[in-house]
């Protein structure tokens, strides 16, 4: 115990080398279009390559550095300009610096005393996001992902209507009714299960052909559920659905909620960033009328996983009353500073990642204007691709995109002209998975596909990465055409 139990000098040297590897393998190569997006290996081959077994003795420096290289080399390069697989992609150097800072600090922003800088940054970032929603006051907290933010909304809504449910649980509550569109995120169902409300009590409201909730159908569902003896509580409108990128009509939905006294939550995990663009913020017209909002800057703003803000219009301390327990070893009331800055008790979590810092530093780097430009560039890239899809033979749109989700089928030459045959759609449904397998094995790019309702598998192209150029988009369509030509 007379000396430190770890070699600090060797640790620093190791880190310096790791930073070089991170820069070369993790950042530079990840953004280099001449590199593969992924280096596909079968799971058993990958297990063997990684030599995963954990042994009683540690390994030497060179071996560990090689392991760091392997992690980066054998992982999917989500910062690559041809990675289009998820609602997140790309690599922002400033946000990454924020992630390094957060990791290095290794603290939880639950109290001002252990995270003074991070608590104040979180406060500032949340206030700016609320301002963009249209609220001059309010509350909020960062949550581990949009699903958790949506669940917080459901919990706070229940607490606001039935404060006693916090201590007494669900046993003497009426049967509650939650409403969300057929296109809403699956976390609404998960949340209902987790909170003991029950998935049977989530009522999925019909959408139009573009995937938007139909407010008249919401009204009808509420009436029906009331007539059956349930108590409607909560409506989740979606601003940017996962597959089609649809925006529910918030003003009309807010009218329905106001008429019935229901909590309105807007899941803007994907589409919230459109609020930064003067050209696109109309998509969320009426969002200021919501009681709560989920917004994930880790998606369109490229902040890095994860960064999900749960925003609340209430400024009376509802969030604190709903979740706070006041652990005596963290939230002492007799501290020498302003204890309202010990914000961690607003969250159901104890240890919590400081997800505000990376957004704060990115915001400082590019400004509100720069963030808006990112959104508009993503939108412009989608418009370019849309024109090309319309122009090229064999590509067929699923629906006219409203936002950044471009959904389309590729019809190989062997199926063209057979659209009226009974087997056509079955056969077409096998095309996207076959093309996807080929592209992953080749490592040339990644894009998602899915069936959706009665529609067979189609591609969902998402462009969020400002490193993506017109050449990448042309390549994207050429590659699909080439990989799918012989199917
Ligand atoms: N709500 C998470 C969406 C996952 C994805 O498609 O990237």
Automatic annotation (TrEMBL):
<feature type="modified residue" description="N6-(pyridoxal phosphate)lysine">
    <location>
        <position position="299"/>
    </location>
</feature>
<dbReference type="GO" id="GO:0042412">
    <property type="term" value="P:taurine biosynthetic process"/>
</dbReference>
<dbReference type="Pfam" id="PF00282">
    <property type="entry name" value="Pyridoxal_deC"/>
</dbReference>
<keyword id="KW-0210">Decarboxylase</keyword>
<dbReference type="InterPro" id="IPR015421">
    <property type="entry name" value="PyrdxlP-dep_Trfase_major"/>
</dbReference>
<comment type="subunit">
    <text>Homodimer.</text>
</comment>
<dbReference type="GO" id="GO:0030170">
    <property type="term" value="F:pyridoxal phosphate binding"/>
</dbReference>
<keyword id="KW-0663">Pyridoxal phosphate</keyword>
<protein>
    <submittedName>
        <fullName>CSAD decarboxylase</fullName>
    </submittedName>
</protein>
<dbReference type="InterPro" id="IPR015424">
    <property type="entry name" value="PyrdxlP-dep_Trfase"/>
</dbReference>
<dbReference type="InterPro" id="IPR002129">
    <property type="entry name" value="PyrdxlP-dep_de-COase"/>
</dbReference>
<dbReference type="GO" id="GO:0005737">
    <property type="term" value="C:cytoplasm"/>
</dbReference>
<comment type="similarity">
    <text>Belongs to the group II decarboxylase family.</text>
</comment>
<dbReference type="GO" id="GO:0019752">
    <property type="term" value="P:carboxylic acid metabolic process"/>
</dbReference>
<dbReference type="GO" id="GO:0004782">
    <property type="term" value="F:sulfinoalanine decarboxylase activity"/>
</dbReference>
<dbReference type="InterPro" id="IPR021115">
    <property type="entry name" value="Pyridoxal-P_BS"/>
</dbReference>
<keyword id="KW-0456">Lyase</keyword>
């Amino acid at each position: 115990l007379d000396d430190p139990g770890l070699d600090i000098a060797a640790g620093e040297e190791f880190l310096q080398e790791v930073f070089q590897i991170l820069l070369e393998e993790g950042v530079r190569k990840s953004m280099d279009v001449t590199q593969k997006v992924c280096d596909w290996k079968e799971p058993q081959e990958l297990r063997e390559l990684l030599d995963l077994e954990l042994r009683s003795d540690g390994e030497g420096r060179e071996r560990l550095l090689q392991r760091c290289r392997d992690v980066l080399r054998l992982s999917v390069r989500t910062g690559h300009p041809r990675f289009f697989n998820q609602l997140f992609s790309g690599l922002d150097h400033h946000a990454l610096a924020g992630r390094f800072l957060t990791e290095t600090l290794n603290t939880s922003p639950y109290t001002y005393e252990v995270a003074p800088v991070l608590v104040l940054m979180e406060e500032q970032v949340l206030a700016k996001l609320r301002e963009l929603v249209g609220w001059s006051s309010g509350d909020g907290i960062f949550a581990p992902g949009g699903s958790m933010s949506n669940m917080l909304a459901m919990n706070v809504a229940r607490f606001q209507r039935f404060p006693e449910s916090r201590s007494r649980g669900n046993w003497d509550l009426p049967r509650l009714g939650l409403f969300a569109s057929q296109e809403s995120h699956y976390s609404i169902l998960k949340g209902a299960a987790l909170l003991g409300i029950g998935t049977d009590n989530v009522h999925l409201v019909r959408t139009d052909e573009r995937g938007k909730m139909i407010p008249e159908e919401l009204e009808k569902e509420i009436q029906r559920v009331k007539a059956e003896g349930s108590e409607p509580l909560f409506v989740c409108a979606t601003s940017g659905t996962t597959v089609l990128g649809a925006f529910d009509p918030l003003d009309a939905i807010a009218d329905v909620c106001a008429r019935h006294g229901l909590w309105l939550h807007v899941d803007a995990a994907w589409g919230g960033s459109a609020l930064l663009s003067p050209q696109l913020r109309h998509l969320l017209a009426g969002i200021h009328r919501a009681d709560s909002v989920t917004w994930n800057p880790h998606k369109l703003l490229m902040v890095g996983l994860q960064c999900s803000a749960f925003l609340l219009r209430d400024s009376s301390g509802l969030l604190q009353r709903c979740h706070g327990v006041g652990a005596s070893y963290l939230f002492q009331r007799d501290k020498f500073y302003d204890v309202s800055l010990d914000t961690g008790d607003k969250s159901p979590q104890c240890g919590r990642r400081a997800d505000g810092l990376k957004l704060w530093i990115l915001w400082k780097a590019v400004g509100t204007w720069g963030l808006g430009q990112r959104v508009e560039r993503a939108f412009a890239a989608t418009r370019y691709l849309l024109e090309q899809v319309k122009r090229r033979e064999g590509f067929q749109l699923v629906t006219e995109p409203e936002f950044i989700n471009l959904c389309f089928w590729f019809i190989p030459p062997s199926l063209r002209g057979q659209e009226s045959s009974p087997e056509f759609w079955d056969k077409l449904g096998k095309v996207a998975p076959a093309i996807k397998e080929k592209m992953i094995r080749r490592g040339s790019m990644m894009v998602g596909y899915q069936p959706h309702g009665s529609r067979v598998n189609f591609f969902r192209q998402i462009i969020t990465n400002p490193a993506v150029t017109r050449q990448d988009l042309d390549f994207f369509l050429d590659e699909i055409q080439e990989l799918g030509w012989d199917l």
